[in-house]
Amino acid sequence: MATAVPVERDAVARAFGGPAEELVLPGATVLRGTGGPDLLAAGVGPALAAASTAVALTAAALDGRPYGLVVSAGIAGGFPPHAPLGSLVVADEITAADLGAETADGFLPVTDLGFGTVTHRPPAALVRRAAAAAGALTGTVLTVSTVTGTAARATALRARHPRALAEAMEGFGVAEAAAAQGVPVLEVRAVSNPVGPRDRAAWRVGDALTALTGGFGKLAPVLESWNRHDHQ
Ligand SMILES: O=C(O)c1cccc(C(=O)CC[C@H]2O[C@@H](n3cnc4c(=O)[nH]cnc43)[C@H](O)[C@@H]2O)c1
């Protein structure tokens, strides 16, 4: 489980309980709980999140205990009115929204330039089960390197990605690291602020962290069953 910052990691950890031991790796510290998943505060932004997740995945594989699933989790901006404050979103598509080139005719994703990928798709059955268990919305979660701060940018993003429910900064990086090692990925986000004009007073980070804990409490059996039965 990869969050950006420790406060998100601890919100997820509260859903699982049990003491955790620290596994200190070069560039990443994994919390290994007795009753739940390994937890990693992977850093803010897609690059650091990818690097830290790759370290944790590689260490587990070399240890002969490869992970069966990587989950990117945390708070996010929600596109109003589709994803209200406090709502949970499970991504059926994890899309890098600003990986590409700006042209006079608009934005071109790197795939149009002949490179790489801009979207990872979590297993559909897992998305369905996770969303049903947690009472979450499903749709595209965008990964951005710059937090949206204007209505114009929010409108442009939704025009390019009409199924987008939320934006955050790590999912695509975590998904790239997981895909490089053939491990499926899931992204679960709790909405802390609307995507749009910058307004720090509108943030509800505490409520979103509470929603994250509640959501993972409900998701726990789904994740356990996935790891036990589906892909080990
Ligand atoms: O200073 C601002 O205006 C601002 C607005 C929203 C979020 C931030 C952050 O620095 C948090 C980044 C952190 O949290 C996730 N996150 C939460 N809301 C958003 C968002 O609207 N757009 C993108 N990322 C968001 C993100 O995954 C980072 O880990 C600052």
UniProtKB/TrEMBL annotation:
It comes from the Bacteria. Keywords: Hydrolase, Menaquinone biosynthesis. Pathway: Quinol/quinone metabolism; menaquinone biosynthesis. The keyword Ribonucleoprotein does not apply. It catalyses: futalosine + H2O = dehypoxanthine futalosine + hypoxanthine. GO terms for cellular component: cytosol. Coiled coil: none annotated. Its EC number is 3.2.2.26. InterPro entries: FL_hydrolase_MqnB, Nucleoside_phosphorylase_d, Nucleoside_phosphorylase_sf. It is an enzyme of class 3 (hydrolase). The keyword Hydrolase applies. Residues 42-199 form the Nucleoside phosphorylase domain. Catalyzes the hydrolysis of futalosine (FL) to dehypoxanthine futalosine (DHFL) and hypoxanthine, a step in the biosynthesis of menaquinone (MK, vitamin K2). Belongs to the PNP/UDP phosphorylase family. Futalosine hydrolase subfamily. This is Futalosine hydrolase. It comes from Streptomyces toyocaensis. The gene is mqnB.
